[in-house]
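2 proteins. here.
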Amino acid sequence: MTKRYLGNIITQNPTAPAGPYQDSAASGVWSLAEALSYQKAGTWPVPGSAAPYALLGATEDPMRILISTLGNGVNWGSAGFSRRADAQACASSTRGVWAGGGDNVIQYVLFSTFGSAADFGDLVYAKYTQGVGFGSETRGIFAGGQGDPRDSIQYITIASTGNATVFGDLTSEDFTQGSGGFSSTTRGVLAESSNQNTNQIDYVTIASTGNSTNFGEYGSPLDRNNFCGASNSTRGLFAGGWDGSSSNYNTIDYVTIASTGNTTDFGDLTLSRRGLGGAASPTRAIFMGGSTGTLRNTIDYVEIASTGNAIDFGDLPNSSQNHAGCSNSHGGIA
């Protein structure tokens, strides 16, 4: 085999780049033909192309997961991150933002570093249980959650800092106990969480303001609470949950975000559980943590464009429940 210089070491077993992300090393000396072959394969690092990371906002110690590979998450190790369980999360390609969870505080971190969380501002209305967070590259939206008014929708401009602004109202007050939500670049979608056998899905147009509109309904079970959502720009998934009493669910269902209508069955989680966090890249959705009555460190994943049961991804460094997830490459980011 021809010897190559890689990282200033002569080797007969060169290591291929793991790109196309800017932080996937391709150090060494490569021929143009070799570089071109990796570019065509989509593995050559491209400046400005950030690796698809998910963050799970666990109290005082968020966890980061590289969505493009299989494996375990790592502790963020961020001092000063005061978010507790039941916060809502949104993200741009550079920032992850968490709001509420016992108060009106909004904080953010940068995906590119393991630095401490920084103060962003305050919600208009404090939230004490997990509603729904989603957004676009520019705007983050927080909807529902316990704390009057329960049907509130609030928004921020993610690239700046400052207090949230009123967006409008939800169609009901049943988006308060761990509702699922996600977005495309133009539309945010969220589902009711209720033990009253209500299963409505609403949507908003992210760039505007105003009240939510009925999207459709999600399928059985109708009494789902504490589930999560994740999406690319085309398809959104709802996963997990429980009946508020004794039964946990492994359900995954989906909608096409640009249309309206009822959900379609996608498949099942590897483990029935509630209080899990969702996040996505353009191709893959992951579902993190949760509880079966016992806290779990499970990470599942599915390929969004297909349907089928979830597959084991790896483990979180810590078991987690009711902690919101977000990513730098979800469906709201072009």
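next one coming up
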Amino acid sequence: MTPAESTICLICGKGHVIIRKEEIAFRQWSDKGYINCRVTIPIATCNQCETRYSPDPEIDKILDESFQREYEKW
């Protein structure tokens, strides 16, 4: 989120959005079975409605890269 962008929540329109880096864990099915992954991503949280989402438009790419790194270890 750039300084020019509003920090007002787009969902409720009342709260302010706070962005923090958080580590998430997920698992994904593959031809080798379930692959467990961990990645640190920015998470935006509204202080009013508590909606949580990643503001990074490249989030799918980040998750895919994390999966590929773990997949190659098998």
